[in-house]
Write a structure and sequence with these properties.
Helix content of chain A: 40-55%
Structural class of chain B: mainly alpha
Shape of chain B: elongated
Strand content of chain A: under 5%
Oligomer: heterodimer
Number of strands of chain A: 2
Shape of chain A: extended
Radius of gyration of chain A: 21 Å
Distance between the termini of chain A: 57 Å
Order of helices and strands of chain B: HHHHHHH
Chain lengths: 119, 224
């Protein structure tokens, strides 16, 4: 008899949380953490023809900011994966409407800059 | 591993992934070469990591959040390079091993970002203890584990997008060996905002997700 009353995933009294986490990775809900999972993901991604273009022109510049406070925050509400690719500079140059996500990014950069000034 | 040479090198194109990590590990002796090796490493693996992070986290982080996560993962690589355990000369296996290690860093950063909300006031309702940490031991070993994994994967595919998001958030509090902490009220608040619903409804969705998984397993898992 399965039960989920505050005890996670169980079947016949055996916890299945480890299997659920493993299955989440295998399904792509989390990032692969095992060699076999990586190989499967590589196959899936190749089959899907997913673009692997770099998002950064000069990667080493990232190291210049490595000691700054960086945040990884969710964007809300949920957005589609294909909608937003403009960066801040482009938005500023073009002077068009700025999306909520870009605004959020601007706010985060400003917060980080102010935090730096405060150091 | 390559022989130790700490002179500046202009090009790392022909070096293996594990060699690049080795040069990065020498950053105190030769920072320039370490950064060049890192840049080559970044170029080789950024596309993969971006793709798997997008697949996993785009619905919760958005495009820019995923980019932040990927970039932060690579920054951590240079800091944590000494924790990498090399696997040898098979280039395919080494590449997959390197990417598995990158995956662990990315998942940890993502889950840490969920856990590090400023308001860590635990809720007093039972949207809470997710894990009873009982190890699964069976006489059939890996074959059984693999069969069960397959059934659990099938079960996960029966969930809706909302159920999926809430299940992932629940498992963000999974702590092997100690069981799961309660979900901070801030995280619950974020879920409420994301799905434009109430805390009660979030709890019901989570409960329904677990119920669907368990019902599926009851119906399909005949190996226990």
């Amino acid at each position: 008899m399965a039960t989920n009353k505050k005890k996670g995933m169980k079947l016949e009294g055996i916890s299945l949380d480890r299997e659920v986490l493993q299955a989440m990775r295998a399904e792509g809900w989390l990032v692969p953490e095992a060699v076999q999972e990586v190989l499967e993901a590589e196959r899936t991604l190749a089959d899907a023809g997913i673009s692997r273009n770099s998002s950064v022109e000069r990667p080493r510049d990232l190291l210049r900011t490595a000691n700054k406070v960086r945040s990884i925050r969710p964007s809300h509400p949920v957005t589609s994966s294909s909608g937003i690719s403009d960066n801040l500079a482009r938005a500023a140059r073009e002077g068009g409407e700025i999306s909520s996500e870009v605004e959020e990014r601007m706010r985060r950069d400003r917060d980080a800059a102010e935090a730096d000034k405060g150091d | 591993m390559p022989s130790v040479t700490c002179t500046s090198r202009p090009d790392f194109n022909s070096d293996s992934d594990e060699d690049l990590l080795f040069y990065m590990s020498m950053q105190e002796e030769d920072r320039t070469s370490a950064e060049e090796a890192w840049a080559e490493f970044y170029a080789r693996h950024e596309g993969y990591l971006l793709a798997v992070c997008n697949r996993a986290f785009n619905s919760s982080l958005g495009d820019l959040g995923v980019q932040d996560l990927v970039q932060e993962t690579f920054v951590r690589v240079l800091k944590k390079v000494h924790t990498y355990k090399p696997v040898g000369t098979d280039a395919n296996h080494a590449r997959a091993n390197v990417r598995a290690w990158l995956g662990k860093i990315a998942n940890n950063l993502y889950l840490s970002s969920l856990r590090s909300r400023p308001l860590i006031e635990y809720t007093d309702d039972p949207f809470d203890t997710v894990v009873d940490q009982t190890t699964v031991e069976t006489t059939e070993g890996h074959a059984v584990e693999s069969d069960m994994l397959s059934v659990v994967r099938d079960a996960l595919r029966t969930l809706t997008d909302r159920e999926r998001e809430i299940l992932i958030a629940s498992y963000a509090w999974y702590e092997p060996g100690t069981g799961c902490k309660r979900m901070p009220s801030e995280e619950l608040k974020i879920l409420k905002e994301r799905f434009q619903t109430t805390a009660d409804n979030i709890r019901q969705i989570r409960s329904r997700a677990f119920g669907k998984l368990e019902q599926y397993l009851q119906d399909h898992a005949t190996i226990l």
